[in-house]
Amino acid sequence: MPSSPTYSTRLTASQVGSYMVRVSNAATGLSVDSRQAIVEIGPVPTIVSRDKPEDIELNGSSAAGAPGFAALAELSGLPPFISVSLGIPGSQTVNNVNSTADIDCFTIGTASRWLGVQVTSDPAASGCVLRVDTSGSAVMTELAAYRFIYLSCLQDVTCMHTNIMSCDTNSAGGGYSLIQFPPALGGRYLMFADGLLGAQGIINFNWQLGIPPVLDPSKSNCTLVFPAGTNVTLMSGITNASPAPSYQWYLYGAPLSNETNSTLSFSPIQSHNAGCYSVVASNLFGIVTNQCCVIVDPPELRCRAAFDDYPASTEISAALLPGSILQATLDLTPKITWDNVVTNTTTNCYFLYAAPMFDTNGVALPPRFYRTLKP
After folding, report:
1. Statement to judge: residues 332 and 283 lie in one domain
2. What is the pLDDT of residue 320?
3. Which domain holds residue 145?
4. Which candidate, 320, 367, 310, places its Cα nearest to that of 342?
5. Which has the closest alpha carbon to 43: 111, 81, 96, 92?
6. Among candidates 219, 218, 231, 369, which has minimal Cα distance to 296?
7. Phi then psi for 185, rounded to 5 degrees?
């Protein structure tokens, strides 16, 4: 430690840790140490992480119903819980050097830090998910979350395991820990982070409360029939997500270039636009897919020579309504006689009919012409 006061106007992660001041008398050889000061980077200046609460002297109050967190804060200097609001990310940079105990999860460590968070009671956060990770940490980590009931619960293995919400051992992509769980509105939780296999150094607690995308069929117009030549906008039907989700539209499973909005527009729609569309909406907290069957009147028949199959066939595909009839003829010379081939029975974006191109002797069959008849 320097012999004179030191001030930092811009705290960096390398300066996070525990500090103390030792005052010595050179003449007598006597010295005295100050109380430990914990320096961290976080949203609330008065809140820092701690060793596990069971290592704190509880002044004899250890039974169920022991003093709550606020009362204990007055007795032992423990910090209150950090408030977590919907859609507002937060983080706390801590240092587990010289910390003690392990978090009793999957892998025993030696240097845990804990941090308390309290989820908002706002009804707008109903259905939310709390995500916590250690991305950006200098060491590999283990991370766990426990429902806070009372402090003595954390001295009881059975009680701890009953109230564990989630646990992860450095399994997230990128080499960090990640947990997600649906919290109770107004609920209080203790987040524990430990260096994996005894590692010590800078650990980041990162948290965010969000809502995964939700599909509301009443706000989607995906399965519809449109006359060719009209302007059409398909609506995804995705609501309530926080943060706002990203979107990607697909046609028969292939991504549509630059179609990344909550709607998909055609100005105007044409017969060749018919088909099976889908939209995927995702954010940090979840992913949802909506399938859309778009039928255009009149329909377009698509023809494909399938030589990769045996026997070779002509495949006719389309997006059709129930009752639509596929008809065929060998001659387009008036008067044309159309034969019914097959009747489509459902709203079908995957209608497929295969006709052989050769007879059993390998002789090519005469060409056919196809059309659909409205139901």
Report:
1. no
2. 94
3. 42-210
4. 320
5. 92
6. 231
7. -60, 130
Q: Quick one: residue 101, left, alpha or beta (phi over 0 = left, psi -120 to 50 = alpha)?
A: left
Cα(344)–Cα(230) distance, rounded to whole angstroms?
Answer: 25
Kindly report the number of other CB atoms within 10 A of residue 39's CB atom: 15
Q: Which H helix or E strand runs over 277? A: strand 275-283
Q: Would you report the helix, strand and coil content of the chain in percent, each value rounded to 5?
A: 10, 40, 50
| pLDDT score recorded for residue 199 | 86
Residue 344 lies in a domain: yes
Measured torsion, CA atoms of residues 21, 26, 32, 35, in degrees rounded to the nearest 10: 0
Tens digits of residue pLDDT in 281-315: 999 999 999 999 999 999 999 999 998 877 899 99
Q: Where is mean pLDDT largest: 48-52, 197-201, 263-267?
A: 263-267
Count of the separate structural domains present in the chain: 3
**Conformation bin of residue 158: beta by default, left when phi > 0, alpha when psi is -120 to 50:** alpha
The percent of residues in the chain predicted with pLDDT above 70, rounded, is: 87
pLDDT classification of 101: cutoffs 50, 70, 90: low
Q: Report how far apart, in Å, the C-alpha atoms of 144 and of each of 117, 128, 150, 169 are.
A: 13, 19, 17, 9
